[in-house]
Amino acid sequence: MNTLKIKELRLSLNMSQANFADSIGVSHTSMSAYELGKKKPPLETLIKIADTYKVSLDWLCDREDKNSEEVKNEKDALKRLIEISKASEIKIEIDKEDFEHIPLAPWEEGVATCSGKIKIESDLLPKFLNKWSDILTVYNNGTINEDLYSLWCDNEIKQFGEENNG
Fold first, then answer.
1. Which of 87, 108, 114, 133 is 20 to 30 Å apart from 157, CA to CA?
2. Nearest-5° angle of CA 161, CA 129, CA 15?
3. Alpha-carbon distance 12 to 20, whole Å?
């Protein structure tokens, strides 16, 4: 097992070693030993990390290259949409009558599109989606760079979590 994955995950979350250790219920000394490769974490600890931070055990154990949350293509995006639709506190409805698929002619280049309406029943998601639409527009037109866009997204998700929990 590559214990550097634990450190990689912790750093990607901008967490201190002590905060990460506390979040999974292990001592600070054990966490340090895991990250230095001096001690291997027990399976229970790996499961706690995977469940808490939504990564796969395969990723933690360096058996796969990808974090379980990574969306690299349309298939991954569809999987995530299905996962969202299964969340008990979020209801998604799709108006099939209003959807329109706009295929490309054989001589056209580009990507076929579709348009329509998806109804999401949530108190917080519509507010986020409205703000996200605005920031996404300025990101896509090059007004802001990826670092600023990522910072905004991270901050909004953090605030969203605080609103949702408090």
1. 114
2. 30
3. 11
Render pLDDT for 8-64 as a digit per residue (tens, 0 to 9). Answer: 888 888 899 999 999 999 999 999 999 998 999 999 999 999 889 888 888 888 776
- pTM reported for the whole predicted model: 0.43
Structural domain boundaries in the chain: 4-60, 123-166
Contact in structure between 17 and 35 (CB atoms under 8 Å)? yes
Q: What is the C-alpha separation between 46 and 55, in angstroms, rounded? A: 10
Right CATH for 4-60 from 1.10.260.40, 3.30.565.10, 3.40.50.300, 3.40.50.720 = 1.10.260.40
CA-based nearest residue to 10, from 45, 49, 41, 37: 49
Distances (CA, A) of 80 to 19, 23, 46, 53, 161: 28, 25, 23, 16, 18
CA dist., res. 6 & res. 36, Å (int): 10
53 CB neighbour count, 10 Å cutoff: 20
Ramachandran angles phi, psi of 154, nearest 5°: -60, -45
